[in-house]
Design goal:
The chain has 134 residues and is mostly beta strands. 8% of the residues lie in helices and 32% in strands. The chain has 1 helix and 9 strands; from the N terminus they run βββαββββββ. The strands form 2 sheets. The protein has a 5-stranded mixed β-sheet with strand order 2-1-9-4-5, with helices on one face. A 4-stranded antiparallel β-sheet has the order 3-6-7-8. The chain starts with 21 loop residues before the first strand and ends with a strand.
């Protein structure tokens, strides 16, 4: 009924009764000489890899398609984001995240876990991810 009353200048409001559980994940682009920056993306419980890549694309106007984005997780989720990146090997210490998987929240809802659908394994990710743009 609200859609029938919608016209230019008076948009339709949508309301949610509660906020979905999520974690703010710092997304860092470590490619040298590229115009992509670090952004914080909300990752909701059960988000797919493509959904997170779409959110990165929405935050960065220099990325035309989410299919250009490749996500990487740190091998060590605690010490990995604290290490100084190398300009010779910008992806050292990072592992590519397969496209077939989801990101459930961990037990205390302070970080995310990668759940692979290929081999049904779970890997702790924390609250930092890396991305590259092709």
């Amino acid at each position: 009924k609200l859609q029938d009353q919608c016209h230019p200048g008076q948009p339709v409001g949508t309301f949610q009764s509660e906020e979905k559980p999520h974690v703010l994940v710092s997304m860092v682009n470590s490619q040298p000489k590229r115009p992509h920056f670090s952004v914080q993306i909300p990752v909701f419980d059960g988000d797919s890899v493509q959904a997170v890549a779409r959110r990165v694309t929405k935050q960065d106007a220099n990325i035309s398609s989410f299919q250009q984005v490749t996500l990487y997780r740190y091998e060590d989720p605690v010490a990995g984001p604290r290490k100084m990146p190398s300009i010779e090997a910008p992806l050292a210490g990072r592992v590519p995240v397969p496209k077939a998987g989801v990101f459930p929240l961990n037990e205390d809802k302070t970080g995310i876990v990668f759940h692979s659908k290929e081999d049904d394994s779970r890997t702790a990710v924390g609250d930092h991810l890396c991305y590259t743009v092709a």
